[in-house]
Automatic annotation (TrEMBL):
It comes from the Bacteria. Residues 19-192 form the N-acetyltransferase domain. It is an enzyme of class 2 (transferase). GO terms for molecular function: acyltransferase activity. This is GNAT family N-acetyltransferase. SUPFAM superfamilies: Acyl-CoA N-acyltransferases (Nat). It comes from Pallidibacillus thermolactis. Its EC number is 2.3.1.-. It holds the Pfam family Acetyltransf_1. Keywords: Acyltransferase, Transferase.
Amino acid sequence: MKHNKTYYRIDYNTKKGTMIIEGPVQSEVLKNLDFHEGLVAFRLPKEQKKALVEIASFEEGRIIIARDAETVIGYATFLYPDPLESWSEGNMDNLLELGAVEVAAPYRGLSIGKNLLKVAMMDDAMEDYIIISTEYYWHWDLKGTGLNIWEYRKMMEKMMKAGGLEWCATDDPEICSHPANCLMVRIGKRVDQQSVEQFDRLRFRHHFLF
């Protein structure tokens, strides 16, 4: 399928000043921006910048960023599921994974994560995709936020709902390995029934184990 991308931007007023939330941004734009030193959830800021620049270059890749002036302080990534993940087994060209949402610690509590997802869904092309997010408690910053597992889960669900993602049942062993883990899904308005059924088979491909 053709991966159409339309750029959107909002100027978001917070108690820390006006933040710019925009995307999908191109690789060339990301290369010229600084990354906040607090973006360390997955890798060091320089390595994270390199990874996002690469994702932005993918035909299907989408990077939405929040920036304070010329410094990226948050981001959300959309791309095909990792080939090593079971979600890629269907080879669906209209299945994207919300791979990561991260906001630097000094900017948390400003609803930036929610607004990253809202801007991402402003693009009408997102109605052509099934969007998934796999939430695993071992990826959550429980220490940094001071939240317990269930408080963090509630926060994550609330943020994902801002982008139209809802809890969805699955028998995926990794998600089922802990009750706090969950699958969040958004099915675009133009996704055909055949794709929905194919996705349902991915969600429950392990049912024979139970």
